[in-house]
């Protein structure tokens, strides 16, 4: 990267931080004409300031309209650094309000009920290993929840309530192993595979080795067979199925705390980092659709991964508080 581009990026970073500070100060002192005059002078001093202010306004809209996020378990001891703007003013009330709003978004919401229904649930960056009675092993990904019954009619059944999980199933032809997610059921006799619950209607399955059968609960005829390297995204309500192939070694890379992408949309990588990030990652902008990425990212360090994406893909990452990160792409 050229020195000029580095300087431009640094200047935009300073302008973004100053714009965030002005947003807080103007909220605290909306009728202070001196503050208004200082802000106008700052805005006119550099075209970069105007662009930074416009982006800050868009971010404020994203935060106001974003849905409540799922709960994260985190241990953040880092203090909030209060920005300074204008004539040495220090503003704490506005940033405290932002922090309180962020905390509310993180710890509230309907996902609190999921943990009560689950036999196993995980927090931010947490992977749990579960050994089932039939000899199978399950790894539950960060911010995921599962319930299971290994004695139902002599068959093993796991219900994926949220997130994703990896299964290494012990072969037993007489007692098939089943995983329910959204409206789908994956049936196996002995294999290694991953199941993800994307939403209430969409589930995806990826097979590392062996063979599985994926079907819709209400429409048994909608059945797909998968073998090593096959992936399937299945939505039963509209009978849509999308198959693809992938290097089996890349499947469930999160079990090794890695995010692996091979010519994938950058948004997929950002979404994969969210369960590892102790806070809320908000995204906006029309530029994500045209950006694709190839690389391996350390899930234990999502902030570094986001910065790497920012440099490679020319996207902007802003840490508004220790709990709110906004990623934008124009």
Automatic annotation (TrEMBL):
It holds the Pfam family FecR. InterPro entries: FecR, FecR_N, Ferrdict_sens_TM. This is Iron dicitrate transport regulator FecR. Coiled coil: none annotated. Keywords: Membrane, Transmembrane, Transmembrane helix. It comes from the Bacteria. Residues 119-213 form the FecR protein domain. GO terms for molecular function: sigma factor antagonist activity. Residues 17-58 form the FecR N-terminal domain. The chain crosses the membrane at residues 93-114.
